[in-house]
Amino acid sequence: MGETFAEKVLGGKANEIVIAAPHHLLTHDNTAAIIGKIAPELAEYGVARPDLPVIVLDHVVPAASEKTAANHKRIREFAAAHGIRHFFDVGAGICHQVLVERGLARPGRIIVGSDSHTCSYGALNCFATGIDRTEAAALLLRGKTWFKVPESIRVTLRGALSPGVSAKDLVLSLIGEIGADGASYRSVEFHGDVAGLSLEERFTIANMGVEMGAKNAVFPADGITRAFLDGRGVPEEGYRAVWADPDAAYVRELAFDLGEVVPVVARPHTVDNVVPVTEEAGVRFDQFLVGTCTNGRLPDLRAAAGILRGRRVAPGTRLLVLPASKAVFEAALDEGIVADLSRAGGIVLPPGCGPCLGAHQGVLAPGERCLSTANRNFRGRMGCREAEIWLASPETVAASALTGRLTDPREVTR
Amino acid sequence: MRVWKYGDDVNTDMLFPGKYTYTASTPEEILPHLLEDLDPEFAGGVREGDVILAGKNFGCGSSREQPVVGLKAAGVLAVVAKSFARIFYRAAINQGLLLIACPEAVDAWREGDAIEIDAAGGRIRVGDAAFRFPPLPRELLEIREAGGLLPFTRRRLRKERNPGGAR
Ligand code: SF4
Questions:
Q1: Residue A30 Cα to ligand 1 middle (Å)
Q2: Smallest Cβ distance to A134: which of B11, B150, B154?
Q3: Is the CB–ligand 1 distance for residue A361 below 6 Å?
Q4: What is the pLDDT of residue B88?
Q5: Residues B102 and B120 placed together within one structural domain of the fold
């Protein structure tokens, strides 16, 4: 019997507990709380390896209060004192995007992070998964931890997405079908016609793995992966891809016809509350958000600008634009996308998590409704319990921003 | 002992609102907001030894660990649910909070039923009915027995870095 991706990477059979040493440990603004737990041990033993941590300040940036500013300061001082090799200060971008852009997510690597969307690096064939702060603290010190080898689900993709339909629609449809716990504790492998999906699209899909409960979500490494890493100065000798054997055992197998996917929305307050946009067409929104680690990359902003260029967002509504990183922001500047979105009425926010977690920059008021490209629509997520968050693709959000109502992007003609 | 019963898909935002994530991290700061958006009575009413019963996918959502730290500090004896989200499951082991996945026990409970738990033996009694659940694998029991992952790690570090046992 062959092995799944997870079994190969972790070196054990499904459901076994193994001890493994991850290549990287990602932490963000929560680094301060993590190192706070182990101050005496850090003073005595130091960090396990200076190239293990990847620290990105992104969650509340630039600082929104004295408390968050003091947090950032502590983390900066820690990074300097311990010679942390991969430290990215305020302004670099959202942690997941930065880690990938810097070529740290490489095929076959094990990467853990004290952020649930660490699963994003499955887009680059990593075994990547979220952990809690205590675990992150223990890892900083010892450099290894326990894993339960997950059982695996095999999703076979066939065909290609239609115009106006995006990877976000695909992953929301998948979550709608299998449910918010449909892949609980499991490794989700994407097989079949994945060659038609860009690296950015794979990122969007893997990013939302945790929204179906998955431990990780992973794509095979192929020409697209190699070309991306090559562009970041990472040669093929710098990694070893891993993939499942054809006769590996799965707890569930699903097939998805990409040609049948349509624009969808996830209604409040769970990500699996998914219906076609046409079913809720006309619902009014107060705020629109294009960005976050799910959909804040150049193709996402480009798609939104393509719809909004030369037009205006509906009166009485707000459009927030949140580039996933400084590099994305600058590329969007060079392409004129930032100007297009700003002139259409968009408010361009600094690269970071911004309003996604409800701490600052775009918190909702009671009774308001936001249509967002983020990955979560939980009650209270954007800072207000009595507000609604709906999730959709950048195309759908941009088309809806024009009318102020939920709109199928395929209806907006240029 | 009081039993607090909730439904399916209780997420970490309901257990501990995300807006406090960066302003509350100690048990004292967490406790007043525990379950704030799910059950406003919980934070003031919870006592040492209480049990939480819930449906499937308990603890889904963000990886923030305040819910686990809070529940442990509040003295919650165990969370018994139909199933758990994985990051939450992991966080609970690492904090030493007892989680029991036992759908039958959740369904069997009626208002007023007492609950007794034998963690090492994998047994739970609900009113007059008894159920079994798989006990933790040995490696994870060691972490729980040490009082959580950090005490376990401290012990290991001392052994690994000072093999002579000088300290
Ligand atoms: S953008 Fe949102 S989902 Fe992504 S890392 Fe930041 S807070 Fe988390």
A1: 13
A2: B150
A3: no
A4: 87
A5: yes
Model confidence at B103: pLDDT above 60: yes
- A-B CB pairs within 8 A amount to 120
Interface confidence (ipTM) of the complex: 0.81
- What span, in angstroms and rounded, lies between the C-alpha atoms of A325 and A340? 18
What is the CATH number for B21?
Answer: 3.20.19.10
pLDDT at B167 (0 to 100) = 42
Q: What fold, for A5-255?
A: Aconitase; domain 3 (3.30.499)
Which CA distances in Å does A238 have to A106, A108, A233?
A: 8, 11, 10
pLDDT of B165 higher than 70: no
pLDDT at residue B63, as a whole number: 66
- Is there a single domain that holds both residue B129 and residue B155? no
Residues 184-223 of A with CB under 8 A from B: 184-185, 210, 213, 215
CB contact under 8 A, A185 and B94: no
- Residue A385 CB partners (closer than 8 Å, separation 6+): A366, A379, B17, B37
Q: Among the CATH numbers 3.40.50.720, 3.60.130.10, 3.40.1390.30, 3.30.499.10, which is that of A263-411? A: 3.30.499.10
Residue B143 pLDDT more than 90?
Answer: no
Per the document, the length of chain A is 414
Please choose, from the candidates B99, B93, B83, the residue with its C-alpha nearest in 3D space to the C-alpha of residue B9. Answer: B83
Q: Is it the case that residue B120 has pLDDT exceeding 70?
A: yes
Tokens read off for A124: 């680059």
Which residue ranges in chain A fall short of pLDDT 50? none
The percentage of residues in chain B with a pLDDT greater than 90, rounded to a whole number, is 49
> CB distance from A114 to chain B under 8 Å?
yes
Ligand 1 mutation pick, A353, A370, A382, max ligand atoms within 8 A of CB: A353
Both B116 and B159 in one domain: the answer is no
Q: What is the pLDDT of residue B166?
A: 46
Q: What is the pLDDT of residue A213?
A: 93
- Test B23 with A67 for CB contact under 8 angstroms: yes
| Contact across the interface for B153 and A385, Cβ inside 8 Å | no
From ligand 1's centre to the CA of A326, what distance in Å?
15
Residue B136 DSSP class: P
Q: Please tell me if the domain spanning A5-255 has the same topology as the one spanning A263-411.
A: yes
| Domain range enclosing B97 | 3-136
Residues B83 and B33 reside in one and the same domain: yes
Whole-Å CA distances, A130 to A350, B61, B63? 25, 11, 7
Task: Give the start-to-end residue ranges of the domains of chain A.
Answer: 5-255, 263-411
Q: Which of A116, A151, A178, A215 to mutate to test the interface with B (most CBs of B within 10 A)?
A: A116
Give how many domains chain B has, as a whole number.
Answer: 2
Which residue's CA is the nearest one to ligand 1's atom 4? A293
Q: Is the pLDDT of residue B93 over 90?
A: no
A378 touching B (Cβ < 8 Å): yes
Residue B45 is predicted with a pLDDT of: 94
Residues B126 and B155 in one domain: no
Least confident of A108-122, B44-58, B93-107, B127-141: B127-141
pTM check: above 0.95: no
C-alpha pair distances (Å), A378 with each of A176, A370, A381, B15, B114 = 15, 12, 5, 12, 33
Closest CA to A294 of A357, A341, A222: A357
Q: Which among A36, A71, A142 has the least Cβ separation from residue B153?
A: A142
Q: How far apart are CA A156 and CA A250, in angstroms?
A: 12
